[in-house]
Each structure stands twice: as C-alpha cells, then as structure tokens.
Amino acid sequence: MAYRFLTDNNCTGLARFVPQCATLRTFRLDQDADDAHIFELACDEALTIITQDDADFTEIMRRAMHTSGRRNCAGEGYGLLIPNSLTRLNFDDVTRRLHFEGAKIDWVDIRIFNLKVSLGKGRDPIVSPLPRCRHCVAESNEDFGLRYKELGLDKIPLV
C-alpha cells in the first residue's frame, strides 16, 4: 500500500479515518519515538504528519531547513494535519473544504508546498504555510511555479 499520511504517537486513533494512513507501528518505529525521528521517517517516506504537536514539528522543520544545503537538503516536510482534539474525522468533508487564500486546494498542494491544516469542530480547515527551505522552494518552483504563484505563496517570506 502506498501511504500518504503518518499519525504520530498522540493521534494513532485517527488513522482509521484517513485513507492511505500509516502509524508508527506500520514502519516498526517505537511508539515512544521522539518527534525528530517521526519527522525523519515522514520525510524519507514523503508523508504528511497527523499530530497535535504542531509547534514541535514546526520547530524541527525550521531547524532542518536551516541546516540544509542544495546537496545535503534534509527536507522541509510534506505538511501537517492538526486535528485539535478531534477524535473522529470525516476526511472527505475536510478534503472538500480545503482552501488557501481563497483558492481551492487538495492534499497534493499540502504535500508539495508544506502547508499546515488545522481542524476544529464546526469550522472550515485553517490552512497556513510552514517553514520552507529555499532550495526546496526553488525546486518546487521549477515543477509547480504557476500553482505556487496562483496560491500566493510567492508573496510569503521564507523564514
């Protein structure tokens, strides 16, 4: 099975609501694995992380991007999904309601442009940019430059 999502150790129960979702157990990673190891696995496997610890993962992404160079890029991640205490999730409904800066987006956009999706009861998902590595931005611009500009991501300063 091709996986697109990975639940960290505090969101494992949501895996059954998200198609193509893996858990730490899927990759034989210890349930007590720290966020840095989870992030490394997610980067290696190109997975969007489902977590409650967005601040921790954002900081890990920021550190990874500052230590990356064109040849040794550690990656910047493939997006985050923050359920904000939800114990159930209607994935299709969330997918239908995904927007960024007024434009309809999908999970491919989340992955390519490393975006964060925050959920909550009774409201549309809130989508925001995460730290981006300048080398990864340049690479995604080569392949997805038009979409990058359509979403207005070119106007957001790199951290």
By DSSP (H or I, 4+ residues per run), the number of helices equals: 5
Main sheet overview: 6 strands, mixed
User: Which series of helices and strands comes N to C?
Assistant: EEHEHEHEEHEEH
Low-confidence stretches: none
Give me the secondary-structure category. Answer: alpha/beta
Give the end-to-end Cα distance, rounded to a whole number of Å: 35 Å
Strand order of the largest sheet: 2-1-3-4-7-8
Shape: globular
Strand content: 5-15%
Q: Specify the helix fraction band.
A: 25-40%
Average pLDDT rating: 87
Using only C-alpha atoms, the radius of gyration works out to 15 Å
Number of domains: 1
Strand segment count: 8
For the structure shown, list the relevant keywords.
two-stranded antiparallel ribbon, alpha/beta, globular, 159 residues
Describe this structure as you would to a colleague.
By secondary structure, the protein is α/β, with parallel strands linked by helices. The N and C termini lie far apart (35 Å). The chain has one domain. The longest helix has 17 residues, at 134-150. The mean pLDDT is 87. The chain contains five helices and eight strands; from the N terminus they run ββαβαβαββαββα.
